[in-house]
């Protein structure tokens, strides 16, 4: 049976901080700063797997924020399971007031393992297609109203000019 290693990612535009957590040992390990690329996360996971010396699955998670869905899509395209966690639902004990990227990554890994969060819904391709259709429909509708106003305005001006002379 393969064990699950939970990977908390504290993500920023300039860097990522990763930390792993396992129930078997009840501790976080392999804390590392990474370049902000999905390839770097993939390399990190391979290195962790090699150091563990056993077959394991990874579940990565990061707080919803500045990256949106881009990192999620990049990781899932590489076959890495990933969850985007809603920041307002993440459980945390108010033990330490000092926030660092490493502490945040560890907290996210633990939270991911214990289920102390709610996942953000990631839109499917179909959802995005419907959203785009609605945007286009609204744009066309507004353009039609604008043209109708132009036509009626021009008609009234023409009528008034004709009646005056």
Order of helices and strands: EEEHEHEHH
Our Rg estimate from Cα atoms comes to 26 Å
Helix vs. strand class:
alpha/beta
Rounded average pLDDT: 89
Summed up:
Helices cover 47% and strands 22% of the residues.
Describe this structure in words.
With 165 residues, the chain is an alpha/beta fold. It has two domains: 3-114, 2-Layer Sandwich (Nucleotidyltransferase, domain 5); 123-165. 47% of the residues lie in helices and 22% in strands. It has four helices and five strands. The chain has helices at residues 38-52, 70-77, 101-114, 125-164, and strands at 3-11, 16-22, 27-34, 56-63, 81-85. Strands 3-2-1-4-5 form a five-stranded mixed β-sheet. The chain is elongated, with a radius of gyration of 26 Å. The chain starts with a strand and ends with a helix.
Topology record:
Blueprint: E1 3-11, E2 16-22, E3 27-34, H1 38-52, E4 56-63, H2 70-77, E5 81-85, H3 101-114, H4 125-164
Parallel strand pairs: 1-4, 4-5
Antiparallel strand pairs: 1-2, 2-3
Could you name the key traits of this structure?
165 residues; Nucleotidyltransferase, domain 5; 5 strands; 47% helix; alpha/beta
């Amino acid at each position: 049976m393969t064990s699950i290693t939970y990977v908390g990612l504290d993500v920023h535009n300039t860097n990522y901080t990763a930390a792993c957590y396992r129930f078997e040992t009840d501790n976080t390990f392999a804390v590392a700063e990474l370049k902000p690329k999905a390839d770097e996360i993939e390399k990190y996971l391979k290195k962790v797997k090699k150091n563990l010396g056993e077959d394991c699955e990874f579940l990565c998670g990061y707080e919803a924020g500045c990256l949106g869905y881009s990192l999620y899509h990049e990781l899932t395209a590489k076959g890495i399971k990933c969850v985007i966690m809603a920041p307002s639902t993440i459980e945390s004990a108010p033990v330490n007031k000092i926030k660092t990227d490493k502490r945040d990554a560890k907290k996210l890994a633990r939270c991911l393992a214990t289920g102390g969060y709610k996942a953000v819904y990631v839109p499917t391709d179909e959802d995005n297609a419907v959203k785009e259709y609605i945007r286009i429909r609204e744009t066309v509708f507004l353009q039609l109203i604008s043209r109708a106003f132009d036509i009626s305005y021009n008609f009234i001006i023409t009528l008034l000019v004709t009646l005056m002379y």
